[in-house]
Request: fold
Amino acid sequence: MSDKKLEDRNIRKITRIGNISYGITIPIEVIRQFGWKERQKVILKIDSKNKIIVVRDWKP
Reply:
């Protein structure tokens, strides 16, 4: 595990991917906890007013 403090591990940078997309990495601990896999479909719920993005599994 990382030597970073717990609160610092949840600070992420936005990275440019190609010409029209951006990405944010998700810690492996979270991926494992949710049972998600590489290339799994997820849904983004965007709250523009409060600047919040919620990521959830595509299938309920």
